[in-house]
Amino acid sequence: MKGGATAATQTVKWRGVALVALGALGFSSGIVFNRCIVGLGALNIAFFRALAGFIFFSALLPRHPQSLRVREYRGAVKYLLGLGVAVGLTATLYIYAVRQTTAANAVLLNNTSMLYVALLAPWLLGEERPRYIWLSLGLALAGIICIANPARSELHAADTRGIIAGALSGITYAGTMLFSRRLRGRVDGLTQVWWSTGSAALIALPWAFNTPWAAFVHNLPFLLALGIIALAWPYLLYFWGLERVEAQVVSVVALLEPVSGVLIGLLVYQELPGPLGALGMALVLVSILLIVGVK
User: Fold this and answer.
1) Which among 218, 201, 292 has a CA at the least distance from the CA of 252?
2) Number of domains into which the chain is organized
């Protein structure tokens, strides 16, 4: 019996890991859609992609009316609000960071989320620390540094605001994972995404009013793809994964997003990673195998 229970637990765990990995791939697909968009600012894009995701999942409400039965999960509404704010702030802060500093700095700072999750999950969620969590985090952080390679970018005084925004996005991204894990068993993933994308659209709403109409119409197909394929569905996969796997594990597996981004750059745009980037990808993969494969 014990062996069967252990095997079943491992199966659930690996399914959760696979869901998060697919979500990371979905997030990284945003590179393609973003590069197709012209004439819109990054924060304009942040609003419309969140709105697209919200509208898509709102259209599914007739098939999933549980999301509208707020009374059934009213005790979890405070966590849903926290999740929505975390998702919305993460998207807005990250895009602002990309605009105000280098993409490398933004990627590096955003992915410090794994450190906050490792520190807070045992305290806030009662999770046990995986056996090799600190070794895995060390390898992962080294890998992200190699992939981002911030040393190749010059820093200027104007970068300060972007760096602060990037650092804050790492905190809010960690909050996304912690809130979703807290909601496990109380609110399903579809409801979490519905609340999250709606909150993200509200947070980015101020930037919707200066959007050029012609640019919006021209980019509408890409905005829809960005919001549904590269935001809403990946978050749904993450939330499903967080129902099955500890937040600490998810925060490391989520690092497949920058790795997938490098591979998309290679396959779609013939952007060959350098030796340091290849080393970084290897380190991230080793860190994931270490935290997932060791009991």
Assistant:
1) 292
2) 1
